[in-house]
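Backbone geometry tokens:
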Amino acid sequence: MSLPTPLTGRLVSLQTKDEVRASLEVHSVYVVEVPAKFANVVKDAVQAEIPDFKTSEISHLRRVVQFKYLPPSLQKQFYPPARLPRVRYFLLCPTRHIQHADLFAILRRCPPFDGKTAPPRIMYVTVPAFAPISAEQAAEWSDSYWPISYKNTNPYGPHPSLVARNTAEIEGEAGTWLALANTAAKQISDKCLGERLGVVVVDRQKDPPEVIAVAGDCRWRSPIGAVEPHKGQGNVMAHAVQRAIAMVAKKRLRLAGTDPALLDRSLFCDSPLTDVEKTYYEKDNISSSGYLCVDLDIYLTNEPCVMCSMAILHSRFRRCIFAKRMPYTGGMTADSAHGGLVTGGGLRHGLFWRPSELNWKFLAWEYHEDGKDAKTVANVKERLHV
């Protein structure tokens, strides 16, 4: 079977739940004008009075900044600078640690504010609460909040260089596999057995890459093979993801010399039903050993629901790519939907990368097809569980 015409577009990597949180949360800090030579004196005095404050809370922020390096908005707010020698803007601590009046009293006891000079000028500044996840974000925050110190790392998700390498590796072929997923979706939908949803499993460790399994949604197929009324949720165990994973398992059994029919359960609908499913299921192109879907990539017409997202995770897929996010039911995305489809965002589970809570993580992307946006790629209802 020849491959369909590839889609054209680009991959957009998903943000992790922690990355989204880090990008959104801000807090208020105190900033004081102080001559450069007294900065350490002021720092030690403040630190001694608030032992609960840990400098790691603001380690991503530059502590001492010249006026000319402040963002334009702060230059306007702080102008004119104090008439002090070599004045600097010293970031003290988050405002939650100490009241303004108490901080003022501490500074009044420190040089150069302990004599008859003008009292300290204390300002409030809103800053990001967490470290940036990329050099680009650090530059953006430095222009809009406060000068940022970027340490070339990402504590909240995959390192940008890892994402970039994987994106470059798969971007040229993503449109091909997503077009094949569309074919699987159409063939199963034409039989009225399921929604227009499709999945393709690819082994990119091979050269050239090979398709291991193709599956469409089968939620409206009864255990005896008849078409059921399209009401309610249908058979959730016959979602396209569940069927594709089962086909991978059955192929491994077949190559190990075990009858794959041992896995047959009418509820799961895990045997190929359409021409495109049969074509790839019949190929003996996967090892009989290895844990289920390790090192395999999965391509989907739509963002998987929470159940299928967890199935992808527990099956140990390497990468996940989908063409249309599901703003109300998807389990992969952690941020709110593009285009304002959902006020306040969807589920925001971000299940692909939560290593502190789940025992597997993988990279994930949304595919933006050229000439289309989230509103025009509308092959299924937005509240459908894929």
Q: What stands out?
A: DSSP finds nine helices and ten strands in the chain. Residues 339-343 have pLDDT under 50 and may be disordered. The radius of gyration is 28 Å. The CA atoms of residues 308 and 339 lie 25 Å apart.
